[in-house]
Each structure stands twice: as structure tokens, then as C-alpha cells.
Amino acid sequence: MNYYRLSIFYKRDVFFSFDGNSDKKELENGVFFGKSNPIKYTVDKIDKYLLNYDILPTIGAPLVSTKFKTEFERLLGNDCEFLPATIVSSENGIIENSFYVLNLLKVIECIDYSRSEVRPLIKNVPNSPIKIIVLYLNKENLQNVHICRMQESKSIIIVDETFVDLCNKIGINGIGFIKEGNQQQPDFFE
């Protein structure tokens, strides 16, 4: 089975920012919420492109469309939960409620350190975040996992071929897949 690093893109250079401190760590660490209160994200403006995307670039857990949620709930099962989200424009207060927070419940050590090149992001700082130059995955740790958050760098999401195939089949917009290897000049899976 092949695995890929998830890449998310949008029509313009923007990030939808998680707007809350208390839940951020729980979302990064795979904590099950089971709640229905919307989680707030902010963006500079709600634009005409928003509803054309099925996954949005975020600071925080990813935001996904109703289409994504509907198509992936069965495949992902206990690997994630979909939490209601509210996106608020900081420009004029316009609100969009049709997206969900993709809360990944599996956080797995993924890096094959014998083949990867990893450096501390901040030199001489113990437990500094890491910079991944070359990434190879430990596939033994990823068996039977369709999607997970990388333990070593929690902003990175890893997906398997089954996930990629379903994205391609149903036409998920806003998503790409980076192959193992050089992460500075990535090779995207077509």
C-alpha cells in the first residue's frame, strides 16, 4: 500500500484560522469530542470560491464540505469525526455554516528515520518542531489506516491509496497528494 502527504490548496492565498485556544490541542492530539456546538474559524472574507471547494487550507484541523463528509464517513469510520463548523469573515461578519471540522482521531508515528532526512526547525532548542527535508513513511505503523495525523509533526496528514482513489472518483476539489521523497521539491501523485 502506498501512502501520501495530504496537500490542500485554494484559489487565493488564504488560511482559514481556528478561532479558539481551548480545543486546538485536543484537535491536534486526536481527542474525541462527540459534541455538536460549532467550532469557529475566521477568514479575511467569504468569497465566491468557497462553496466550490471540498477541503479548505486551515490553521488548525481541516475544514471539509458536506460532500466530503457524506462520501468519507463510511470509509474513515473510527479514524475521525466530523464536527460542525462556523466560518466567520473578519471583513464583514458574514457567516458560512456548511463546512465540518475533520477531527482526526489517529495520531501515529509515521517517519521512517532510517530513510528520511529530518532536522530541528530551531537549532539548539530541545524538542523543537521538525523540518522534514526528505520523507519516507514507516508503512508497518500505517497498516489499515486510511487517514491520520503525523505524531512527529501534527500539521501533516497522511492518507492511503484507498483515500486517494475515492477523492479522484468523486472529484474532491482543493486536495493534492505528495509522494514520499523530497519534500522541498515535492512530487505530486496524479
TrEMBL record:
InterPro entries linked to this entry: Imm11 (IPR012433)
Name of a matching Pfam family: Imm11
Taxonomy, superkingdom: Bacteria
Domain Immunity MXAN-0049 protein: 52-179
Protein's recorded name: Immunity MXAN-0049 protein domain-containing protein
